[in-house]
Write a structure and sequence with these properties.
Elements (H helix, E strand, L loop, with lengths): L4 E12 L3 E13 L4 E5 L6 H8 L7 E6 L2 E3 L3 H4 L3 E4 L11 H12 L4 H9 L15 H13 L5 E5 L7 H16 L3 E5 L3 H7 L2 E6 L2 E7 H6 L5 E6 L2 H10 L3 E5 L2 E5 L5 H8 L5 E7 L3 H8 L33
Parallel strand pairs: 3-8, 3-9, 6-7, 7-8
Antiparallel strand pairs: 1-2, 1-4, 4-5, 9-10, 11-13, 11-14, 12-13
């Protein structure tokens, strides 16, 4: 099947009198297949929102090729616009309008049956408050309304830029459940978010951008596998003696006040056997698995504290990542 979204070599440069020329996207590639919940990640200023705006025809790209649902973007987007729902950045609404009136006007303007208004409000949990004025809404409620506006068309492709912004933990979980239920019906979802733990929970594929370029892409499990150092957290009553014994067996050991971290261990049994034979009993053997946050920080070159103690699985601390290749100049 053809990809739902395909971007190849996207380039975008901005100019201003104050800052001169700034490269926002520098040869970026993205591919989203049908039925995926695809996470789109990157630090602030890495080019995420610029990429989405270019894909939807909101800014003009300087180079590259893009397609949405088989239509060349942005030139042929009108042909598929009715099959795409999107929110980019923070949509603005008229404060004196109710949520119901806001969506009704959007439905009428877009040729969408007005019966979809109540359905969309119900999907995001706003049906009971749909007749309240938007100016009284919290940030989280406004975000729900934005998602409802993207769902009006009953889209095949849903593009969400920071959909959990302003939501409390319960709202984030509801948004996660909604996204999964939409994907179960065949909707393809592209999510840009800063909440990396949430992306890891909900997405099956991910693309990471840094300095305007793709630095990782693929199944979440495959991306994380590249950062697995096969480390084991070891809890013992005699950490200093245990460290000496393990180093004597040729193992790399890092010591912390209440535990050890043993690296590059193919079989944790080697640790237990080495210590047990010398009467040092092990109370904990826990594999330290990489998570999306640690991989993201390393890929994007974000600083971490190397003195911070290792965490339990799902919260490993990484060393300083290698900075990504700097963006190069492009012709406008």
């Amino acid at each position: 099947m053809s990809p739902v979204i395909e971007i190849s070599g996207l380039r975008k440069t901005f100019r201003s009198l104050r800052h001169g020329r700034r490269i926002a996207v520098d040869g970026f590639d993205l591919r989203v297949e049908p039925g995926q919940i695809h996470g789109f990640l990157g630090p602030n200023g890495s080019g995420k929102t610029t990429t989405l705006r270019a894909l939807l025809g909101l800014v003009r790209a300087d180079g590259g090729q893009m397609s949405v649902l088989g239509a060349r973007a942005p030139y042929d987007l009108p042909r598929v616009a009715g099959r795409v729902g999107a929110i980019v950045e923070s949509p603005q609404f008229f404060g004196n309008f109710t949520a119901h009136r806001t969506l009704r006007l959007l439905a009428l303007a877009g040729g969408v049956p007005t019966s979809r208004v109540d359905e969309a409000l119900d999907l995001v949990g706003l049906r009971e408050r749909g007749h309240e004025r938007v100016r009284g809404y919290s940030l989280g409620m406004r975000q729900r309304l934005a998602v409802a506006s993207a769902l009006l068309k009953d889209p095949e492709l849903l593009i969400l830029d920071e959909p959990a912004n302003g939501l409390d933990p319960a709202g984030i979980r509801e948004m996660r459940d909604l996204t999964r239920s939409l994907a179960a019906t065949g909707v393809t979802v592209l999510i840009s978010s800063h909440i990396l733990a949430e992306i890891q929970l909900i997405c099956d594929h991910v693309t990471i951008i840094s300095d305007g370029r793709q630095v990782a892409a693929g199944r979440v499990d495959d991306v994380l596998a590249g950062f697995d150092r096969h480390e084991i957290r070891v809890g013992v009553a005699e950490p200093d003696r245990a460290a000496e014994l393990l180093r004597g067996a040729g193992l790399a050991v890092e010591t912390y006040p209440d535990h050890l971290v043993v690296g590059a261990v193919a079989d944790p049994e080697l640790i237990a056997r080495t210590l047990g034979e010398q009467g040092v009993w092990v109370r904990e053997l826990t594999p330290l698995r990489p998570d999306l946050e640690s991989a993201f920080l390393e890929l994007t070159g974000a600083p971490t504290d190397p003195l911070l103690p290792r965490q339990h699985p799902g919260e490993p601390v990484i060393d300083l990542g290698t900075p990504t290749h700097p963006a190069t100049e492009v012709d406008a």
